[in-house]
Design a protein that fits this description.
The protein has 120 residues and is an alpha/beta fold. The protein has a single domain, classed as Translation Initiation Factor IF3 (2-Layer Sandwich), CATH 3.30.110. It contains 2 helices and 5 strands; from the N terminus they run E-E-E-H-E-H-E. The strands form 2 sheets. The chain has a 3-stranded parallel beta sheet with strand order 3-4-5, with helices on one face. Strands 1-2 form a two-stranded antiparallel sheet. Strand 4, helix 2 and strand 5 form a beta-alpha-beta unit. The longest helix has 15 residues. The radius of gyration is 23 Å and the shape is elongated. The N and C termini lie far apart (71 Å).
Length: 120
Amino acid sequence: MVKIFGSTHFTKKVYMMRLQNRKHHWETIYFPRQIRNKDELYNFVIDKLKSCFRYYNYNSNPSYSVKPILYLVLKGTRPSNSFKINEKEFSSIIAENLPILYAKIYQKFTNSLRTLDLYL
């Protein structure tokens, strides 16, 4: 913040203001096996994330400026093709169950298909 004083001879005084920015929380979850059900996938991820956020107070309702933003990276074996992960739906489910503002989800899966040269 800058204040300017004087009418003929100007002086300025500069004040430092500390702003409290929002915190960002990065998490990576590795899937050890292929998950075949959407509910099983959601429950697996939420259980893993609850252990990361266990020190946050669930009972108090912090203001939006205090809640962190979650960046979630999903790695491991690609889930079954019978369902597709809807990122908006999944993000809202995570935000309802954890003390975060919202979740941005990145999917970095590997294919579970094996090539013929592995068996030769």
